[in-house]
Design brief:
The complex is a heterodimer. Helices cover about 65% and strands about 0% of the residues of chain A. Chain A is built from 13 helices and two strands. Chain A has a two-stranded antiparallel sheet with strand order 1-2. In chain A, helix 6 crosses helix 10. Chain B is α+β, with helices and mostly antiparallel strands. Chain B has a three-stranded antiparallel sheet with strand order 2-1-3, with helices on one face. The longest helix of chain B has 12 residues. Chain B is elongated. The chains are: A mainly alpha, B alpha+beta. At the A-B interface, helix 4, helix 7 and helix 13 of A face strand 2 and helix 1 of B.
Chain lengths: ~300, ~100
């Protein structure tokens, strides 16, 4: 009975709010997806934070600082949304630290050169935007509202990344090479950010039925590739996929096979930076314990 | 409440002088000053506000979805609360 009312609401494009009845599976799916999304924003601060002190100009440095601060904010919007499902911030952190909750594998790759800041903004944020734009219409109210806020702020991120790539691509031959190298390294992991192919994605069925997801992994991936190819061409960079070509009939680009063995290996913790990213988060959390304790002691003393 | 659990505050922001405060989201903080500062950092990085209210989430009282129909019913059947209910004489203006 409850389930029928719930599904009817979903089918009528109404939002589900925290106090509404929802199936356990819906709640669990959301907690998993939103927390993974939140953790990705927070862990994603690390590869970019790596370049704040070495940004090539004051302008670039100020922009990068603002961008990393935005990522922190996006993480917090998402933690807030997730907490409305009955899980605490502390539990969410614990799940991350124990490896029970994941974050996007893309952040387990190192950022070797300044061009990687360009590739991340352009490709990684670009892929995230395609996903997030579709999630603005997700059926869970707090998640949807968080996505609307995030999308408003995110487009500057992609533009700053593309600007870096465009500048480097028209710079010296070394700079252009550096930009091409960053594209080569980040292209495949970026298109794998959308997750496994639909045929190998066991949770997609419910997620679509419940309208948590509005487009499948493969649909989103195709959207992203279609948008990005001409952007690469415009600045004279080459997407590292020999099978990439326009398919007139489908009105879309065909593209090559992704290396799913590598994808799963990185998900399972064997990427170049998995350990470093998680250890850094745990260390920062532990080192901040005295601040949280002091703040609590202060508020208890002043009873406000 | 365990010693690790922080307090949640709901954030309301007046985006421009003269407008009503609107719910934006929430923040975690231990006292009101920290709540205001966290709200400023999180929700007004791009000139979104001219005034911020924060209130502990535990003080928000909400109606419950199960009672929605009976709770909000009266306004629907009292059509005479709406201006379109009244018949105005032909030719009347500015009313």
């Amino acid at each position: 009975m409850n389930e029928a009312i719930f599904q009817k609401k979903i089918d009528a494009e109404q939002k589900i709010e925290p106090k509404d009845w929802m199936p356990d599976g819906y709640r669990k799916h959301l907690i998993r997806q939103i927390s993974q999304h939140a953790h990705s924003e927070i862990i994603g601060m690390q590869p970019e934070g790596n370049w704040i002190s070495r940004a090539p100009s004051l302008r670039a440095k100020m922009i990068l600082l603002a961008k990393v601060q935005d990522e922190a904010g996006h993480g917090l919007y998402l933690y807030s949304a997730c907490e409305t499902l009955g899980i605490s911030r502390e539990e969410l952190n614990e799940q991350l630290h124990q490896g029970k909750a994941k974050y996007s594998s893309i952040f387990n790759y190192p950022t070797l050169t300044w061009a990687d800041m360009g590739a991340i903004g352009w490709l990684v944020d670009g892929a995230a935007i395609v996903n997030q734009v579709s999630l603005q219409k997700t059926s869970y109210g707090p998640y949807s509202r968080g996505m609307v806020k995030i999308c408003k702020e995110e487009s500057f991120h992609q533009r700053q990344g593309y600007e870096i790539m465009a500048e480097m691509a028209k710079g010296t031959s070394e700079q252009k090479e550096m930009a091409q190298d960053a594209l080569n390294r980040f292209w495949w992991p970026s298109i794998m950010m959308f997750g496994p192919n639909d045929s190998d994605s066991p949770r997609t069925g419910n997620a679509m039925k419940w309208k948590i997801k509005r487009k499948t992994n493969d649909e989103l991936r195709q959207d992203f590739i279609n948008k990005t190819v001409s952007q690469a061409e415009l600045i004279g960079l080459k997407i590292p996929d020999p099978d990439l070509k326009w398919n007139e009939e489908r009105g879309s680009y065909d593209f090559g096979e992704m290396d799913w063995d590598e994808f799963w290996s990185v998900v399972e913790g064997n990427g170049p930076c998995n350990e470093q990213r998680l250890n850094h988060h745990i260390k920062a959390h532990k080192n901040g314990a005295w601040v949280r304790e002091a703040a609590k002691a202060y508020s208890q003393k002043h009873n406000n | 409440m365990s010693k690790d659990t922080s307090t949640v505050w709901e954030v309301f922001i007046q985006s421009k002088n003269g407008l009503a405060h609107k719910h934006f989201g929430n923040v975690h903080a231990e006292d009101k000053e920290m709540a205001l500062q966290n709200a400023r950092d999180l929700y007004t990085r791009r000139n979104e506000g001219s005034c911020i209210w924060v209130v502990k989430s535990e003080y928000i009282v909400s109606s419950v979805p199960e009672d929605e129909d009976s709770f909000f019913d009266p306004s629907n059947d009292k059509v005479y609360r709406h201006p379109t209910f009244y018949k105005m004489p032909d030719g009347s203006k500015h009313i």
